[in-house]
Amino acid sequence: MAGLQKRALLGRADVLERLEYELGIIKFKGYAAYFLVVEDLIRFAHEHGIYTTIRGSVAGSMTTYLLHITTIDPLAYNIPFERFLNPERPSAPDIDMDFADNRRDEVIEYARKKYGEEKVAQIGTFGTMLARGVVRDVARALGFAYGIGDAIAKAIPFGSQGFPMTLERALEEAPELAKMYKSDPQVKKLSILAKK
Q1: Using an 8 Å Cβ cutoff, are 60 and 84 in contact?
Q2: What global pTM score does this model have?
Q3: For 35-73, how does the pLDDT look when each residue is reduced to its tens digit (9 = 90+)?
Q4: Are the C-beta atoms of residues 97 and 52 closer than 8 Å to each other?
């Protein structure tokens, strides 16, 4: 049924205008192959009953909607394409694909066989919280009064580009923070937990 609805969309002037606009930008930026590979991986997952979902600004693309990459009609929700792929921005469009954890290997193996072992790699991203933010979050999670977390956070100096401030370093470099740590058991407890 969804396929019939999407085919019916192609008869609408606003849809065709939007699609021509998007396809022109996709071609100009050189991303046509990228979109086709993503469509291929999603189709493989659907055909093999592998749960998948797409998230992020990709919902702003009529092209991805008609390719069955996304399930959201951007015109129905008035989502601008430029949020996903802006002709002025040099960075590539980001299509966040999530596959069921217990079947992700099948999708990776399919991609390796189809596109070549040397063209497929897994990547992961890991984030760490900066000292000021982690102190506030730990204080909030543990039910400390807002003022305690805020006072500790404000006593932590800012880091510099490439050298983020750690709690260990802050205790060495900020006398006010070191004094709070030594004299207030709540500050000490919160700081120890935040370091972890």
Answers
A1: yes
A2: 0.64
A3: 999 999 999 999 999 999 999 899 999 999 999 999 999
A4: yes
